[in-house]
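Supplementary Text 2. Reproducibility record for the structural model of the 678-residue chain.

All settings were left at their defaults, and a single model was retained for analysis rather than an ensemble. We include the record here because the model underlies the residue-level annotations in Supplementary Table 4.
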Amino acid sequence: MPALFRAAVDIGGTFSDIQVLELATGRTCAHKTPTTPDDPSEGLIRGLCEIAERVGFSLDCIEQLLHGTTIATNAVIMSRLPPGALVTTAGFEDVLEIGRHERRDIYANRAESRTLLVPRDRRFGVAERTRANGDIEIALADAEIDRLASKLQAAAVDCVAVCLLHAYANPAHERQLEAGLARRLPGLAISVSHQVSPEIREFERCSTTVLNALLAPVVQHYLANLRDRMAQAGIDCPVLLVQSNGGVTSLETAARFPVRLLLSGPSGGALAAETIAEQTGRPNLIAVDMGGTSYDVSVVHDGRVKLVNQGDVAGCPVRLPMVEIRTIGAGGGSLARIDAVGRLAVGPQSAGARPGPACYGQGGDIPAVTDAHVALGRIDPDYFLGGAMKLDVGAARDAIQRHVAAPAGLAMEQAAEGVLQVVTAQMAAAIRLSLFEKGLDPADFTLVSFGGAGGLHACATAAELGVSQVLFPRDPGTLSAWGMLYSNIVHDLARSRLLTADRASVPALAEIVAGLEQEATALLAADGIEAARRAMPLTLDLRYPGQAYEIPTPLDSADGLPAAVAEFHRRHQAQFAHAEPDVTPQFVTVRLAATGRLPKPRRTAIADGGDGAAKGTRAVYADGEWRDLPIYERRRIAAGRVLAGPLIVEEPHATLFLPARWTLRLLEQGELLAEKVE
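Retained model, structure tokens:
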């Protein structure tokens, strides 16, 4: 019987990263291929064909495909969304426009414009009313549905979002509208808020539902293309898509709830960091993923990555559980320029996969971060992607000279080094925000660097933060894809109900928990997850009376409410430097993560890589001068030997630059640990 493989694919803005796992041996193999922006599934299949040929297996040996994608995120950011409509309770048609009256720039003379996903002429109110306790005040008549169907037909929309007032408390009218519209307008994609985001807060629930509705045709089209390409390639296996919460879900669920895919790719990296924390015994990690387009920061504290219940995508709030990730436009493809006031600026604009940095030789002439590394000798132009792609050093240096050095009156080397210093400062600032807002000290953490470009900046970024250790995992250029191999099926369920968190509310809480557990059991059974592989952790959103926002707090069971309240006071003290233990908080939302545990790959220690000798030297510009630095192959670094910087370590999909006053050694399971010498 031929060996079976599990494949994980993370499609980024510049490259698509692939990891395949041989199930019998636990052996993994990594691969990168350029992303195909017009149809990402094309690059996905091409990459699988390439790695299958390299490893020596046929595509029909893939027993499962795990897939992280930016298709939903890109559609929102680039406003490539189909025409859609919003249906609300009459009188609430402008909830998207009103929002929360928040102003990011409090000193601006005018309020900034808000992203309006649905224009006013495609927002329709219906005569109905449900009260906050779930009682129906005004019943929804069939005549109202007839009238609405006529308006939607005349508007020629591809999808519709239904978000009625207090539908989280009683979804009867939303169900009635969904069924009525489906009968009258067959084929119309309908999203209803009680299924997408059944939570309190009208604006956020509405925004999330609208995003889901508008993304449905986009994601469904992509998934149909993916199925067709897989069939043509002879790949017949289940496909699980990575969600923003770090879990995976079926194609069918992803097609119904595409809004859950908005942080699909980056969450794989956060999951990988959590796995590394467990395997290395380092519970506090700063995980940074530097790819071609973006720089993603997540924090592992006490062994866990934090989940938040609300995020923001292109100015649109999304009320769903997601891995807490801070993303900035800083990657290998980030473009450098002298701005209108003479300052050196880097990003957030990116060269992308096409044309890419100037050194790619595909028509790009604006210098990118990768061009700066190539110009300074830190990247081997003949070994990019393991030699699969040759880089043009002359084009890189010329682009920096024309667009940065000459306008700023600098030497080419100074300009290139300035580009790297600017982008490093931006990355360090993003990390500081991620830590300081939680009251955490960078000195208590180890930096974990991955992504194709991460190793070139990691030590400099750590030094700027006061972090003395940097961990470089195995296959850092494809680590997000590797993290997906450790994912589980997860369905996030929620019930909003405002109650005082005291013993009198325990029976009501028990009723809510029982309902959630029943729904979770049905969902996991439909996924084919047997009882022994199911987990249903509970979380309670708690707040002091009068507060506008809550703190998620673990809940063992309804009877464990007092312990959850005590933990809430502790977390409030840690996050806001004060607590009121004599005040009884309120709980707002009960959450359950219906988890189906999937088999995990075995992580084994690696054999000694060899003699550890440098493979040669190369002229590299560092610390203001050109020097011949030793170049090491990662696979040949000997266990137990300590290397002192400055030096460069190369592997097929990543390059590591170790500055002076840093040392490097190989750990048991293949990670490289860099430590700053004081």
